Amino acid sequence: MDVLESTISAIQHDPELGKCKFRVSNKWVGANHNCTTVTGFYGAKQEIAHRQPFELHADEPPILAGEDQGANPVEHLLNALAACLTTSMVDHAAVRGIHIEELESEIEGDIDLQGFLGLSKEVPKGFTDIRVKIKVKADVDNMERLKKLAEYSPVYNNPFSLSDL
Amino acid sequence: MDVLESTISAIQHDPELGKCKFRVSNKWVGANHNCTTVTGFYGAKQEIAHRQPFELHADEPPILAGEDQGANPVEHLLNALAACLTTSMVDHAAVRGIHIEELESEIEGDIDLQGFLGLSKEVPKGFTDIRVKIKVKADVDNMERLKKLAEYSPVYNNPFSLSDL
């Protein structure tokens, strides 16, 4: 909390401190298995190393031609969204003095593989719908406010605008 | 490869087999640390369990009020994108008989924390730019075709369309 408040105050005084660059490296292992490494980022006008590198494995289940050595890429995407909604609610609740006792969420998304496989041009490649259920243990009077706080989530607000692919 | 080709052929004959529902559950651990569990999904007209549940931890680095017990949510998002670009290139190359020897990628995305923190309404909350570098060891004649194959990626093609938040 103290760190969060001093970060906010620092960025208010010097907006340049809020500009971040996040990075990952990915390496194909074989078949549908690949591994991402996350080692550091740029923020607060400096390069910052994580305390330890994080490795994230992606694979597909056997029915999708993999060996199930990790969640698949679209499950990783739902994870990113779930994690971000949680962090956004918790952080924004904290700075507003709203007490949260417990917070859980479930996310389910629909994908029709005809899109990814190129079998139909009418079928989207990505998720066609994503449903989010958030279960929160907190003062009942704060429920509507808490729900709105999830909307600060960077991942939720991320219509990919990619350059350089 | 055999599995991939029989999956494609099965979905061509019965498109219903391609309809999938992917799911994650997330639980707040404390401060900025939360944990996602991925246990199974719906596909090929049935519920399918992963060989083992996958746990994915998200946290923030100390400078962003966390204890660095996992990649942060936006790093998880870049991981999902990287993993998906790799899988999409590898799978689509395989069914086209294009040999890939090695495949690596680096992704970097810009975020200005003024958006997430609600300090400025003009600053987007999500990434403002994402740069992708793909390094592939394969026949030089296939490079342009391989680059196009990345565009089948479901995560890359995912302007979130969420319902029920």
Description:
- 2 copies of one chain form a homodimer.
- With 165 residues, chain A is an alpha+beta fold.
- In chain A, 28% of the residues lie in helices and 37% in strands.
- Chain A contains 4 helices and 6 strands; from the N terminus they run H-E-E-E-H-E-H-E-H-E.
- Chain A has helices spanning 2-13, 73-95, 113-116, 143-149; strands spanning 19-30, 33-43, 46-58, 100-112, 129-138, 162-163.
- Chain A has a 3-stranded antiparallel β-sheet, with no helix packed on it. Chain A has a two-stranded antiparallel ribbon with strand order 4-5.
- In chain A, helix 2 (73-95) packs across helix 4 (143-149).
- The longest helix of chain A is centred in the middle third of the chain and has 23 residues, at 73-95.
- The interface between A and B is large, with 111 and 111 residues.
| Helix and strand run of chain A | HEEEHEHEHE
What is the alpha-carbon Rg of chain A in Å? 19 Å
Q: Quote the beta fraction of chain A.
A: 35-45%
Give helix % range of chain A.
25-40%
Q: Calculate the mean pLDDT score of chain A and round it.
A: 93
User: What class do helices, strands and sheet pairing of chain A give?
Assistant: alpha+beta
Largest sheet of chain A: 3 strands, antiparallel
What is the number of strand segments of chain A?
6
Low-confidence regions of chain A: 161-165
Number of helices of chain A: 4
Q: Compute the separation of the termini of chain A in Å.
A: 38 Å
* Biggest β-sheet: strands ordered side by side in the sheet of chain A: 1-2-3
Could you state the oligomeric state of the chains shown? homodimer
Question: What global shape of chain A is seen?
Answer: globular
Biggest interface and its residues per chain?
A-B, 111 and 111 residues
